[in-house]
Write a structure and sequence with these properties.
By secondary structure, this protein is an alpha/beta fold. The chain has seven helices and eight strands, in the order E-H-H-E-H-H-E-E-E-H-E-E-H-H-E.
């Protein structure tokens, strides 16, 4: 008996237009009717309303999820983050800083983010030419603030 299913978003549940197909919605609803728990497992942050334009209709399809490559859990309406220690994050930032082609995205508390380059440069690339695959690579880390 299947009790729960976990789904990746990009390349699995989402179409090439980053939406849920009607057939996917129907299949998920059928699973719900059978009492199967549905969960997301994604590298994305849980801001799917902002990132994908999700409404309550999409969120209602899922019982929770694992986000940020496992650094965030959502279950029963509660969100829990597992943050990396500040010294480790500092070391990562110091390692990435000398390499201009690497873009670092830090997941912070309260759904905030920090980037080592302006976000427009990360998304659009530098100058007139499109980004190379290396320049679009992002490292996502969770960070907790340094204690005062």
């Amino acid at each position: 008996m299947i009790r729960a299913l976990f789904f990746d978003l990009d390349g699995t549940l989402l179409t090439s237009r980053k939406t849920l197909a009607d057939s996917t919605r129907t299949a998920l609803q059928q699973c719900q009717k059978q009492g199967i728990g549905l969960f997301l497992a994604t590298a994305r942050a849980p801001l799917l309303d902002k990132m994908l334009g999700w409404t309550e209709a999409e969120f209602r399809l899922f019982d929770g999820g694992i986000y940020c490559n496992g650094a965030c859990e959502k279950l029963h309406g509660q969100t829990h983050y597992i943050f990396l220690p500040a010294p480790l994050v500092t070391r990562c930032v110091q390692t990435v800083n000398p390499i201009p082609a690497l873009h670092l995205a830090l997941q912070l508390q309260e759904e905030r983010h920090a980037f080592n380059h302006p976000l427009a440069a990360v998304l659009m690339g530098s100058g007139e030419s499109p980004c190379s695959p290396l320049s679009r690579w992002k490292l996502r880390l969770s960070v907790r603030p340094l204690k005062s």
